[in-house]
Each structure stands twice: as C-alpha cells, then as structure tokens.
Write a structure and sequence with these properties.
Elements: E1 5-8, H1 17-39, H2 43-56, H3 63-76, H4 81-96, H5 108-117, E2 121-125, H6 130-138, E3 151-153, H7 163-172, E4 180-184, H8 187-195, E5 199-203, H9 213-218, E6 224-225
Parallel strand pairs: 1-2, 1-4, 2-3, 4-5, 5-6
C-alpha cells in the first residue's frame, strides 16, 4: 500500500535533543518568573493562571508561590498543560526576538519537500505542545517550515508509547494505519506505532545517542537510518 502520510517525531529525529534541553528549557526557567510578573494581568496569561490556581489550590494573588512551583516543574520536567502553555508564550518571545532558532538537521527539509511533492501529507507528533511545535518549525534554522506540515499532534491525542495514540492519529487523519509511516528515535514509540499497524523507521542520530545503528538494526524489525535521506518510504 502506498504511504499517503508520514508522521514524524521532533526531538532526536528531525532535530537535536540538545537544542530543547540546552537552549529551550534553560531559557524558560530563566524567564518564566518575570514573564508571569509582567503579563499576569493580560487575558491569555490570566486564563492559564486561573486554571493553575484551580488545579493546585494556590490562591490567584500568590503569584510568587505559583512562579516557584512553575520553576520547580521545569527543573523536574513535569508534563503539565498550564506550564506548557506558559512556556510556549515565553519561548514565542525569545523566538520573535531572534534569541535562538530551532535546530533542524540539514538533511530534513529537502526530504520533507520531496515527500510533499510526492503528495504525501506530513504530520508532527511530539510531546511538546502543538503551539510549541508550530513555533519550532516557524523559527527553525532552516527558515519557516510550517507550510510543509498538514497537522500537528501532541500528547492530548495520547502518550507516545501507547498503541491507542497511533490508532487515534490514523483516525484523525482518516487513513488506514498501513498507509502511514511513523519516524522516531525512540524504539518504544515505534513498537507502539507498529502494533497499531503503522509502517515505521527508526532514526538514530549519532549526535544525540551512543546507540550503534548497526547493532540496533540487528536486533529490531524497524528499518534503522541515521539521516532522512536514507528513509525508504514505499
Ligand atoms: Mg524523540
């Protein structure tokens, strides 16, 4: 069956894990306090703080207590919807000021373009929020890549290591699982996608991992590649 859609992970797949961990997370940690102090009266920020107050029991006027909690969550890499929303706003400011650009491996844009020309729809599935994914590809070091993608999925569709999530994605894009290729650097995600009927490819980026591609290939049925131009779609 022809592959009609390709779903890709970001961290460790299209992009280095280092960028997120060494640039984005420290930036959010450094700036989230002042961002909340400066913008807490604005509607978008206030709305998130209200939800945070409701879910944690911290009174809305205790802004400093909330900030401490948010900072702790960033350090502990806690997956929380309100934190993600605020982080997205903080990152947006940094991107727009040109303080950093999202890293994309140089082999990626050309291959995505080729797949798009072959009339395959491209999607992103990442644990970062959809807003963060869109910022990422808007302000990438290869330019604005948003036109390449037909849609974005985050963990609101389900956790990345669960079979159901991939069934939900197939349903959301109205395609049979066998006609979708999922690309990731994490074997457990690929196993889940495969169990849902997806085709898979395991990207092992030597810059991101100490895994040996040949040894990995010997132990798995997922095709292993070290860059996007090695991916065989059909
Ligand atoms: Mg990944």
């Amino acid at each position: 069956m022809k592959i009609a859609a390709i779903v890709t992970d970001i961290e460790g797949t299209t992009s280095s894990i280092g960028f997120v961990h060494n640039v984005l997370f420290p930036y959010a940690l450094k700036h989230i306090g002042n961002f909340v102090r400066e913008h807490c009266e604005e509607r978008d920020v206030m709305r998130v703080l209200v939800r945070l107050s409701e879910s944690t029991g911290i009174p809305l006027h205790k802004i400093e207590t909330m900030i401490k909690l948010l900072e702790q969550w960033i350090k502990d890499d806690v997956k929380n919807t309100e934190l993600k929303a605020l982080q997205g706003m903080v990152w947006e400011k940094g991107y727009k000021q040109g303080l950093y650009q999202a890293h994309v491996y140089p082999d990626v844009p050309e291959v995505l373009q080729k797949w798009q020309q072959e009339e395959r729809n491209l999607y992103v599935y990442s644990s970062g929020s959809i807003k963060a994914q869109q910022l990422f590809f808007r302000f990438s070091d290869s330019g604005d890549m948003r036109l390449l993608f037909s849609g974005y999925f985050d963990t609101t569709i389900g956790p990345k290591r669960e079979v159901d999530s991939y069934e939900n994605i197939a349903q959301a894009i109205a395609l049979k699982p066998e006609s979708i290729l999922f690309i990731s650097d994490v074997k457990e995600e690929l196993d889940a996608a495969e169990a849902a009927g997806f085709k898979t490819t395991w990207v092992i980026r030597p810059q991101d991992t100490s895994l040996d591609p040949e040894r990995a290939q010997a132990k798995t049925s997922h095709p292993v590649v070290t860059s996007f131009d090695q991916i065989k779609v059909d």
